[in-house]
Amino acid sequence: MYQYDAHDRQLVLDRVEQFRGQVQRRLSGELSEEEFKPLRLMNGLYLQLHAYMLRIAIPYGTLSSAQLRKLAHIARRYDRGYGHFTTRQNLQFNWPALADTPDILAELAEVEMHAIQTSGNCIRNVTADHFAGAAAGEIEDPRIWCEIIRQWSTFHPEFSFLPRKFKIAVTATEQDRAALRVHDIGLRLLRDHAGQLGFEVMVGGGQGRTPVLAKTIRPFLAAEHLLSYLEAILRTYNLLGRRDNLYKSRIKILVDSVGPEEFTRLVEEEWRQMPHDRIDLPEAEIQRIRAHFAPPPFEALPQRDAEFELRRRGDPAFARWVRANVSPHKQPGYAIVTLSLKPHGGIPGDATAEQMDAVADLADRYSFGEIRVTHEQNLALVHVRQRDLGALWHSLAELNLATPNVGLATDIIACPGLDYCSLANARSIPVAQRISLALQDLDRLTGVGELKIKISGCINACGHHHVGHIGILGVDKKGEEFYQITLGGSADETASLGEIVGPAFSSERVVWAVETIIATYLSLRRGPEERFLDAYRRIGPDPFKEALYAAH
Amino acid sequence: MPLIDSDGRTLSDPWRLLAEGEDIPELGPVLVPLRRWLAERDRLLARSEPVGVLLQSSEGPADLSGDLRRVSLIALEFPKFTDGRPYSTARLLRERYGYAGELRATGAVLRDQLQFLRRCGFDSFEVENREAGDAIAEAFREISVSYQAAADEAPRAADVRRGERTGYEQSKVCAGFWAY
Q: Could you give the CA distance from residue A402 to residue A321 in angstroms, rounded to a whole number?
């Protein structure tokens, strides 16, 4: 993974001192809360319902064991002993004291971390395929380009006061595990027929009040021109994006209002006039960054480990976990392990300091000291020898991190909701917990198969409900929490937006509604191999509407 | 609102902003909104006194592109500090159109924007903050590393790294916009 050099380190140290000065000016009263707000928001510090929340950047979801131990330490020393992993592959602390935040940033700087641009109307922390560097069929590690984007976007002087926040995601395989089509910019690494490296550039996706799937504005951009092309997109957006209405200021609204063809023309025209040499990185710098993402020293192993295969056949519980939580690796004899942060009845994405420390140790022992954060709010150890899977499974089970539910109905994404967030209309976490408890029977979970339930506590859609196979949106009806259900959304390479199935359900009825949807699917699917999403796409919403509303 | 340069020094301000309908004075530098510049360009240039143009954040530099050698000041108005359009306008003026005169940030200009503004090519600043002198000068230098090229002389980290690898003196590899 990337390691800071003297320049990277200096920038983060400068930022710590700058923010310390800003906090001091706030604490001394020189800055009013109103004046301080834009400054703290540039640094991921939100004022929530009960306290400040500090959001820490985990660039493209990659952590070293030392970094994860530092996060555990911060959770213990400055917070309440836990942290919350988010759909943006970041970590949020919910209870820091304002006066402590400069010290927290100083501690983070010791392990090459920061909170820069985790909020505010700027280019946010760039996200990536969480299986980067391990996934089969990868063109190259997309994190090389994420790190290039991270550096370019950090304190970009022109793009720190955009009309609205701006999110970029990068993948390098056919499968999309990073939800490219619901990002402001999605970049898919590929090679053209001549073998040249480049990107498919998608622009204008997003969720929120107006969900839109991104459009491809350039099927192939030579990789070395990535930064100048991004700069052309951002400049076009900065100058033309709406600033009069919070809900119409994302780039998706601009792309839709001028039309994708005209938007593309504007970007291409801007790009043509730019001095590419000044903006794009020299090849030597790309190579320098690429070298940081060289594969770890894998052992030469047979494709399949005999001991692992034997155990899988003999131990149904182990086999169940492998089936749900272990994915194939590109390197023979290795596997990718997802650590479920969705224990049944637990809070999606939360991890205690003890769990973080223990996962850091397991990463050192089994996965070259590297940990990933997934946008589905789980963790992953991506370079595990198949022969170590049994021992790792035992250790994870002791930590309550081996719930065999990854990709299944209880692997629920949920935003913090009204338990924490000042924007929320309804609670998300308790709904996730009740659904999780209702569906926790493992045989049934396995029987239902892949099913993505995503819950947002308000229309801002931090819980990605628009792209849930079952999406649940909390709404406020005269002071009472109701939940609107959408069906058929997907964030993968076949991305689609969910359709509202009918009137919202009360908090008591929402679990019944999810159970009814699942029962309807089970009764109508062609067989266990037809996933919920495929069945919904085949049969449409009517049978579900019938089951949910006909009796009333 | 003190006017400062990028070293935090207070500047005297000889410019007079002409109000709507106000007669053009015979003497002294005047600053006019773009609309007035477009309507009265020839009269303003006939005076042989310096002329400046004030652009609102919604106004781009294209209307001025033929006259950039004739104006001595371009002031870009920030109606709110969150309106970031003038950053792009400033870079276009400096880097695409080659404007070399004074480029002033005016309106909602806060201490904590100053470094970004300077990097985008502004060289005078009407700041809202109370402090001045060394304290405000510090605001231009708080972050000492630049990852990207802009309209200032700051070398990109990538170019500094290249210099370190090849053993060149830093000054040779990191000539910024103004040196070209």
A: 7
Q: Give the domain CATH number at A539.
A: 3.30.413.10
Closest Cα of chain B to A35: distance in Å?
9
| Domain shared by A284 and A316, yes or no | no
Give the minimum alpha-carbon distance from B40 to chain A in angstroms, rounded to a whole number: 27
Q: How far is CA A334 from CA A298, A316, A337, B120, in A?
A: 9, 21, 10, 49
Residue A422, domain member (yes or no): yes
Q: Which residue of chain B comes nearest to A19, CA vs CA?
A: B142
| B147 vs A154, A235, A284: nearest CB | A154
Burial (CB count within 10 angstroms: exposed 0-12, middle 13-18, buried 19+), residue A175: middle
What is the domain extent for residue A535?
A: 413-549
How high is the ipTM of this complex? 0.94
CATH code, A364: 3.90.480.20
- Chain A: nearest CA to B149, how far in angstroms? 6
In a domain, A405, yes or no: no
Name the helix (H) or strand (E) containing A55: strand A52-56
Residues A338 and A424 in one domain: no
Beta carbons of B96 and A5 less than 8 Å apart: no
Please tell me the predicted confidence (pLDDT) of residue A18: 94
End-to-end CA, chain B = 34
Do A519 and A444 share a structural domain? Answer: yes
- Best mutation target among B120, B147, B178 (most A Cβ atoms within 10 Å) is B147
Distance from CA of A31 to the nearest CA of B (A): 10
A155 touches chain B (CB under 8 A): yes
Residues of B in contact with A279 (CB under 8 A): 148-149
For residue A7, give the nearest of B85, B113, B145 by CB distance.
B145
Q: What is the pLDDT of residue B128?
A: 80
Chain A residues whose CB is inside 8 A of the B165 CB are: 284
Q: Taking CA atoms, what residue in B is nearest to A14?
A: B143
Q: Is residue A129 part of a domain?
A: no
Domain B3-143 of CATH type 3.20.20.70? yes
Tokens of A224: 């070395």
**C-alpha radius of gyration, chain A, whole number:** 23
Interface check for A216 against chain B (CB to CB < 8 A): the answer is: no
pLDDT, tens digit (0-9, with 9 covering 90-100), for B96-118: 999 999 999 999 998 889 999 99
Measure the CA angle with vertex A500, ends A496 and A503; round to 5°: 170
Q: Dihedral angle at the C-alpha atoms of A62, A68, A70, A73, nearest 10 degrees?
A: 150
* A151 and A238 fall within a common domain: yes
Domain boundaries, chain B: 3-143, 144-180
State pLDDT tens for residues A273-325: 999 999 999 999 999 999 999 999 999 999 999 999 999 999 999 999 999 99
Same domain membership, residue A139 and residue A279: yes
If pLDDT is split at 50, 70 and 90, which confidence band does B171 have?
very low
The count of domains in chain A is: 4
Q: How many CB pairs under 8 A join A and B?
A: 101
Inform me whether the C-beta atom of residue A5 falls under 8 Å from chain B C-beta atoms. yes
Say whether both A75 and A106 belong to one domain.
yes
DSSP B93: I
Which residues in chain B are closer than 8 Å to A35, comparing Cβ atoms?
A: 110
Are residues A277 and A138 both part of a single domain?
yes
A99 and A25 co-located in one domain: yes
Bigger pLDDT: B20 or A254? A254
State the sign of the Cα–Cα–Cα–Cα dihedral A362, A368, A370, A376: negative
